[in-house]
Fold:
Amino acid sequence: MFDFDAGKLIVIGLVALIVIGPKELPRVLRQIGQAIGKLRRMAADFQGQFMDAMREADIEEIRKEVAKVGEAAKLDVNFDPVSTMRNQIGGAIDSSNMPHEADYTPPAEPTVPVNVINLPDPPETAPAPTEFSIAAAIAPLTPEAAQAAAPEAPARSSQA
Structure:
């Protein structure tokens, strides 16, 4: 718009010197400098306000996006997985395994006691159990009784 080169500035300075005079020129130049300083400060202030408005607009957009993400990721405050599972399992057991009250008949009494274990009968060829007495267990064994009670062991050879 304004294209000032060195030649044009010299012409403007000479015209100002002739029109204003050498006595008033420093005061006028100082006022012009102060006015240019004010204009620069106003321009910088305007630019700063404009940039702040742009940042606020960007920040507002970011806040909206964060709010959207927060709403999407928001968990239910009443989130209690243990009670949810308990209710679901209890409801499934109550509704599926239990007959309806109209169809319910109590189970018959068991014919075999519950705490009895039925073991198979011992084979017929098994030897009868021997009686055990504490006195016999405490009594000292004689060498003949010890030999009779001991199981037969293979003879050891005395090669040592």
Helices lie at 6-20, 25-73, 81-97, 134-138, 143-149.
